[in-house]
Records
---
Amino acid sequence: MKRILVLSLLLSLVAVSYAEKVKVRLFTNNKIDALYVSFDLGLYDLFANDSSLIEPSLGDNLSVEIKTSPTGDGVMVAVNGYSYGTYTSVSLRATDTACILCLNPRNVKQRTYEGDLVVSAFGKGNLRIINEVEFETYLAGVVQSEIYGTQSDIFRIQATISRTWALRNINKHRSDGYNFCDYVHCQAYQNRCIRPDIMLGTMQSSGETIVDKNGKLIETPFHSNSGGQTANSEDVWRSALPYLRSVPDTFSYHMRQSDWTKVIPINQWLGYFSKTHKLNVQNDSIRKELLTFSQPKRKSKILGIPLTRIRTDFKLKSTFFSVSVDPHSGDVVLDGHGYGHGVGLSQEGTIRMVSLGISYDSIIRHYYTGSQIHRDENVSVAYVNNFVTEITKIIEEDKAHPGQKKSKKDDWLGKLFRVRDRQDREEEFDPTKQEVESDYKVEW
Ligand SMILES: [Zn+2]
């Protein structure tokens, strides 16, 4: 059994070390009654109830099938079709640091992960699948799921804000028996990281977190695009936080999610305010405000109604919109900017700033007012530098020979840097095609 180190709950004192593990629930949003596991790299030991060994050294050409029991209080396990019985839980423990699992739940797209796996029943016909994985490996997977781009500073920034969020919220699912779920309620973790440039950015940010002037970890909300101005935290959630202030953000202009338009029949628009908010829409001044409302700068309300409510009810990309009436059709037209809640860091603004050569820490300070980057002295600079040197070489060789990527074919790379994958899996999984929306709810 590998030793699992429990993360300290005293977050400000946490030393981010590569040996520490977190528990992440996978496929949280799916109901899964059967899971098929195969092994992409390394050997795994299969345990029942986390203590008694069922099968050692599972690897190539073997597959484990885990299903819910008919009574819903246990899991049935079989290896290559041979059934071993029913247990409260089963676990697959990696025997090495570079081990990769390939997970195929019934009716859900395949994903790959590193580290260990613990599976138990979660009600009738549903499995609870937990990945126990090194914290930094988890973070690299989060970065790959949460942002697109090609420059390592983009990933470095995302890694720093995701690390800060994770350390601050390490107990988010404590009562459920794990640290994080794998979707936007916590942070998206849709696959293990397979890209060397994302590994590089994550590693460059090693040991870095964002703190306020008192040295405390801050909340680090982010969104796809601010539309040109970020929002105050109290205009979206309850509390006014000193580091979540509205700032002008022209860097978010002219990106994928900078602008949007939505056309709504005028009767539906006015009817909504009349029925839901009891406004007298026959009143001239009320009607005029509802049909000509404009936001040269962000506002938080229209006629006293929070724009966040309007955003939810009409499924709008943002609250940063102005209203007009199309003179031909008579429909209401919302001209909007940005995508997401607008608080904190704009991901597309970040991508633009990095492309302009603006420094990593300036970008973070632009979006989180008065914040600072804290560097943990316990993280080995030599280890980080060695990794950065080696992986930079690989990225450059990939660029020089795009047809035959070194990062895909070299066995030693996986052993050393955990980025090896089978070619077919890499081609199948393209993180740049993912949705870029990355809102999540913050509980103050
Ligand atoms: Zn969660």
Note: The CA atoms of residues 270 and 432 lie 39 Å apart.
---
Amino acid sequence: MRALARSFAQMARTAEQPGRTVQVPKQPLAEPPLPIHTLGDRVLRTPAKRIGKVDDAVRELVRDMLRSMYTAKGIGLAAPQVGVHKQLLVIDLDPENPASPPLVLINPEIRSFGSGLDSYEEGCLSIPGVYLDVVRPSTVEVNYRDEMGRPRRLKADGLLGRCIQHEMDHLNGVLFVDRVTDELSLNSELQEHGFQRGDVQSIR
Ligand SMILES: [Zn+2]
């Protein structure tokens, strides 16, 4: 997910912070170690598979995803966005703060949604430049494994809850534009940024 400067400062929350073993310097590199695929690329539509064992290879992938995310100035990145079909996502709502560790979710599963809905403007590193309102549950509870393979549970609202849902969609081959209901804004934003309406798979 792509940051909106005005929103993440006001809504950032730190809920649960796993170990720091996969942290990398939060500095942009000349180019991301893993190129990020964009709307229209079929790899974004392929569902991700569960990770059987959380080992050093997975942690190295996490580090490369974090480096790619920081380089692209994002606050969330899912493995399918870098062409890897594994149920893995990374989130950092405070990318300017070297002291706050990123959140790593492996094999995340939705446990429950809260009853409320929120509309909020989202962006995506795979659809650069496009920002549109999306309605989602305001609270979500997920089970997942952290980067050491430990089972975790997290209840999140605000920007974190939003970001988790956005990134988990990627694991199912769903993009935030698929959930946009304002057809006029969707068409004009896509056109303005050089994307094809036919690459959106609306779910309404
Ligand atoms: Zn995204």
Note: The longest strand covers residues 103-113.
